[in-house]
Amino acid sequence: MTVDRRRLLGLFGVGAAAGCAATPQPPRAPLAADAIMLDGVSFAHGVASGDPDTTSVLLWTRAGAVGGEPHAVRWQVAEDEAFQTIAAEGVAETSAARDHTVKVVAEGLRPGTDYWYRFIAMSGQGSPVGRTRTLPEASSAEPVVLAVASCSLHPNGLFNAYDAIARLETLHAVVHLGDYIYEYGAAEGDYGMANGRRLNRIPEPPREIVTLEDYRARHAQYKSDPNLQAAHARAPWIVVYDDHEVTNDGYLTGAENHQPDEGDWAARKAAALKAYFEWMPIREPQASRSLEAATYRSFRFGRSASLHMLETRLMARTRQLDYAADFYVTGPDGQPTPDRPGFMARLNDPARRLMGDDQLAWLERDLSAAVDAGAAWQLIGNQVIMARVTAPDFGALIPEATLGAVLATLPPERQQSIRSLISLFGQDVPLNLDAWDGYPAERERLYAALKRSGARPVALAGDSHTFWVNRLADAAGDDVGIEFGTTAITSPSPADSLGLPIAFANQAVNDANEEVRFVDFGPRGFLKLTLTPERARGELIAVSTITETPYRASVLKTYEAAAEPQGRIGALRES
Questions:
Q1: Are 450 and 483 in contact (CB under 8 A)?
Q2: What is the CATH number of the domain that holds 533?
Q3: pLDDT digits (tens, 9 = 90+) for 171-182
Q4: What domain count does the chain have?
Q5: What is the pLDDT of residues 270-294, one digit of tens each?
Q6: Cβ neighbour number for residue 401 with a 10 Å cutoff
Q7: Is the pTM of this model over 0.85?
Q8: Domain that holds residue 231
Q9: d(CA 81, CA 495)
Q10: In whole angstroms, what is the distance from residue 174 CA to residue 240 CA?
Q11: Which helix (H) or strand (E) holds 380?
Q12: Does residue 494 carry a pLDDT above 50?
């Protein structure tokens, strides 16, 4: 297709008349890849925005092109969806060196304002249109509405929860707490592939991802999903990775799912992080900061809240303890013998780290600054559950006939591993060693920093594929804050992996734990969080299905707490 010179100059010239470019597309319906390919450039992966502040926001797209030569695209930010009033515009260049992804920071915007944005190829073809919003000014007391999401295993189900996020009437930002992609392959026994084959959601590439090209291809597959594109186009995202953006149960020097035949750990981690920063709407690090350090950062939502995103996975985390490897010693007969005292001593070792000193000092400074500025709530965006959650004595609670019937449906080796785990869970040990429960000394350091800052903390957690509402307390029993844990977008329930009925697991965990106010292992969905200077309100929103459409989105439970004087938090109440 030919494009006349006048129109081409209008598209890339500063003096171009607003509205002379390509017709904007509706944000809920990104065009199919074949409909937005023109002269070798496509916008098949949609658009996204992220990391807003009061006067700027980052914009993202992928301007796919044939070949690796650098090419340019124009970007526009408008005050209206018809792009009649342009607020900011410019030209950005990309190439195969960054997988044809584009990131620009649109500046000079007004605080607390909705904007629309798009990208335009040299040919004149426009991208889908996205909607974004800047942060409110410091004095603003307007309510803040956030969608909090985590854990989207593409093969295991349809992204109906992302569609539900895109359809929220009021939404100021999406906070994604990690496991945005998963690394597993397409073998019959790979995670989520039972549903993956039924739904024809086969991982690309169809193997575990290890190289830079692998990670790029997996990100591309995820962002080809129309529901995920719609959620990105609805509001700015504030993101952090967890483990599966690299590989399962990662820590500073390795990962449970990184094997010697998969190459050097540092090289794999570097490849995964490079792809993550190419494909996600997160600001690039300053020259003095690593990619890992660039993920911990703060945002201010006027007087209602501040948000502090943590990195707890790759910068400082000590290897997770493991019950199979760390709970037993070899007895005189050469057989494994439980050693709970030794295990608990290792678990409580002060040398075990999750955040590290530099990040902890940064967090205390930013929390104190937010409190001094009058922000009512300090949100802690982190990957894993912070509350103390002791594993119930499932063995004493489940009749043997019931347990046997459930386990009989599983492979023999799986039956034995579940029986071993259930026997351990009767010994007053944590339910999840990959959460803050696996790092109790580090959690006490964090709680001390929260107290010194005068914060009114609301911890936000993903990873567990479970809805949680928790009251946080330190080792002395003193109140520290509250916690909302979001379930997964699609990833399986952990109760399924234990072979337990959902209702039974919910009741057992709730009854065994003083800090837990509500838990539900069953639904898939997200958390809608509304904050004002007076109250924090969490709505646990569940989707009726992840295996078909249409679906229904409904509020499972709503809990709220009041902001009381001297940084205190009122009782968590169901409303």
A1: no
A2: 3.60.21.70
A3: 999 999 999 999
A4: 1
A5: 999 999 999 999 999 988 889 999 9
A6: 8
A7: yes
A8: 137-296+306-315+377-382+459-575
A9: 45
A10: 11
A11: strand 377-381
A12: yes
